[in-house]
TrEMBL record:
NCBIfam families: PRK00951.1-5, PRK00951.2-1, PRK00951.2-4. It comes from Haematobacter genomosp. 1. Keywords: Amino-acid biosynthesis, Cytoplasm, Histidine biosynthesis, Lyase. Pathway: Amino-acid biosynthesis; L-histidine biosynthesis; L-histidine from 5-phospho-alpha-D-ribose 1-diphosphate: step 6/9. GO terms for cellular component: cytoplasm. The keyword Cytoplasm applies. This is Imidazoleglycerol-phosphate dehydratase. It is found in: Cytoplasm. Belongs to the imidazoleglycerol-phosphate dehydratase family. Its EC number is 4.2.1.19.
């Protein structure tokens, strides 16, 4: 069963994340940050990962801790659900267009966290949401999920479109990488024999 539930409590946030890698992309994400919920919904839907997120954070300060810590918890949940990674495709990539925006994501479920983030956003805010938190989220996801993650903005004018394209691109890449490769379903996809 490639499922996991992670609960993570600090003085700043209280977060529970559940994922099912073999789901259908159903979601129920509630963090108190509207735009971020919208992005998490995209992540679940386009990765075909069932995802439930409940986050209560110190939003009276700003959204930073809630967004970052949710990234940590989702990363931990993905890593736990993947287990020894037997049978997975491991790699995934996607060029995702959304109107004016095109974002490329390429990832390796390597166990080696590394984020390359070339996504300039033309505005500091999307509604009340600080756009710099998008990088914080993916940094946390990469670090705690053990994911080598490259995200590049190839085109884009509108910040909402660029960020949404980034989440969808990562989601599609993740869908591919976590899938069981039926040609090699019993093996860990590394010549080292471990990931
Ligand atoms: Mn949207």
């Amino acid at each position: 069963m490639r499922k996991a539930t992670i609960t993570r409590r600090t003085a700043e946030t209280d977060i529970t994340v559940s994922v099912d890698l073999d789901g259908s992309g159903s979601y129920d994400n509630q963090t108190g940050v509207g735009f971020f919920d919208h992005m998490l919904d995209q992540l679940a839907r386009h990765a075909l990962i069932d995802m439930t997120v409940r986050a209560t954070g110190d939003l009276h300060i700003d959204d930073h801790h809630t967004v970052e810590d949710t990234g940590i918890a989702i990363g931990q949940a993905l890593a736990q659900a993947l287990g020894d990674k037997r049978g997975i495709r491991r790699y995934g990539s996607c060029h995702l267009p959304m109107d004016d925006a095109q974002v490329r994501a390429a990832l390796d479920l390597s166990g080696r966290p590394y984020l390359v983030w070339n996504v300039d956003l033309p505005t500091q805010k999307i509604g009340t949401f600080d756009t710099e938190l998008v990088r914080e989220f993916f940094q946390a996801l990469s670090t705690h999920g053990g994911i080598t993650l490259h995200v590049d903005r190839l085109h884009g004018i509108n910040s909402h479109h660029i960020v949404e394209a980034a989440f969808k691109a990562v989601a599609r890449a993740l869908r591919e990488a976590v899938e069981i490769d039926l040609r090699k379903a019993d093996a860990i996809p590394s010549t080292k024999g471990a990931l």
